[in-house]
Write a structure and sequence with these properties.
The protein is mostly beta strands. It is about 0% helix and about 55% strand. The chain has no helices and eleven strands. It has strands at about 1-5, 10, 15-25, 35-40, 45-50, 55-60, 65-70, 75-80, 90-100, 100-105, 110-114. The strands form two sheets. Strands 2, 4, 5, 6, 9, 10 and 11 form a seven-stranded mixed sheet that branches. The protein has a four-stranded antiparallel sheet with strand order 1-3-8-7, with no helix packed on it. It is globular.
């Protein structure tokens, strides 16, 4: 049971990135998925969630800029990040709970330059 996050990179302020989360060993479509991020020296924080039926929630800091969505045909969850700002710089993780155990992807670095 593994999660794989990808799509990070270096982007200028105002730019955009799309992160992807895929799974092996289970079907991502069946689970609620969360995107988290952790900036240097800070605690990991929840950015957005999507339920198995598509309901979404967002942290106030990203509302209106980030969109979480899933493509069931691809069994993947995405985080579209627009209007990126330097304070969005962090390692981003996707996560879910499978059989009572929280699973984390390995993280993907997002760096936003000013």
């Amino acid at each position: 049971v593994q999660l794989q996050a990808s799509g990070g990179g270096l982007v200028q302020a105002g730019g955009f990135l799309r992160l992807s989360c895929e799974a092996s060993g289970f079907t991502l479509n069946d689970y609620a998925i969360g995107w988290f991020r952790q900036a240097p020296g800070k605690e990991r924080e929840l950015v957005a969630t999507i339920s198995s039926d598509g309901g979404t929630t967002y942290a106030n800091a990203v509302k209106g800029r980030f969109t979480i969505f899933r493509r069931n045909a691809e069994d993947a969850v995405y985080l579209q990040m627009n209007s990126l700002a330097p304070e969005d710089t962090a390692v981003y993780y996707c996560s879910t709970v499978v059989r009572g155990v929280r699973r984390w992807g390995q993280g993907t670095q997002v760096t936003v330059s000013s």
